[in-house]
Amino acid sequence: MMRASRTFFRFFGYSLLLIILYVFQGSGFIIPEIFGGRPLMLISLALCIASFENTLPSVIFGALCGVLTDISFDGSIGYFAFALTIVCYAENFVFSKYFVPSFVTVIVFSFAAVMTVMLIYYLLFVLIAGLDSGCVLFVRHYISRILYTFAVTIPLYFLTAFLNKNL
């Protein structure tokens, strides 16, 4: 009985954090732009949750964070939902089989994952779509967005580790 209530409160904490970060990510005035980009905080949250949880919660939170990121980023559901579901599954697999989710391993994996997800997005929806000044857009917006998203991962790691350990 005690374990079920701890699990409920842990997932409730993750869900509350997801809602708060969605509001922060979607509003233009709470989190300021740095060098033309705002962080995609839900990507960082999904990666941090996937490093500590089992497969099913990792995939569910990955898909949910992806759907909400799609809605707040460009209004259509698709790319981030699919990408975060796959990345969170892969991260959960790697951390359950090969690595212990320590600060360094989670940060390294998160940096690689954020970089990969954002670069594939840029290739698919900017370069292949043939948008004018795609290189300028990458330099002015995507590099700062990648670094800002990665920077948000650091406090979210400690917050999700706290929730995972104490609830």
What this model shows, in words?
The structure is a single chain. By secondary structure, this protein is mainly α. The protein has one domain (1-166): Orthogonal Bundle (Arp2/3 complex 21 kDa subunit ARPC3), CATH 1.10.1760. The chain is 80% helix and 0% strand. The protein is built from six helices and no strands. The protein has helices at 2-26, 41-52, 55-73, 79-97, 103-127, 134-166. It starts with a helix and ends with a helix. The model has no long low-confidence stretch (mean pLDDT 91).
Strand content: under 5%
Which range best describes the helical content: under 10%, 10-25%, 25-40%, 40-55%, 55-70% or over 70%? over 70%
CATH fold field value: Arp2/3 complex 21 kDa subunit ARPC3
Under the CATH scheme, the architecture is Orthogonal Bundle
So what's the CATH class? Mainly Alpha
Mean pLDDT: 91
Note the overall shape: globular
- The N- and C-terminal alpha carbons lie at a distance of 13 Å
Q: What is the tally of beta strands?
A: 0
Total domain units: 1
Count of DSSP helices? 6
Question: What's the gyration radius in Å?
Answer: 16 Å
Specify the structural class. mainly alpha
Q: Main sheet, how many strands, which sense, barrel?
A: none
Taking pLDDT < 50 over at least 5 consecutive residues as the criterion, the unreliable ranges are none
SSE string, helices as H and strands as E? HHHHHH
List the helices and strands and how they pair.
Layout: H1 2-26, H2 41-52, H3 55-73, H4 79-97, H5 103-127, H6 134-166
Helix pairs in contact: 1-2, 1-3, 1-6, 2-3, 2-4, 2-5, 2-6, 3-4, 4-5, 5-6
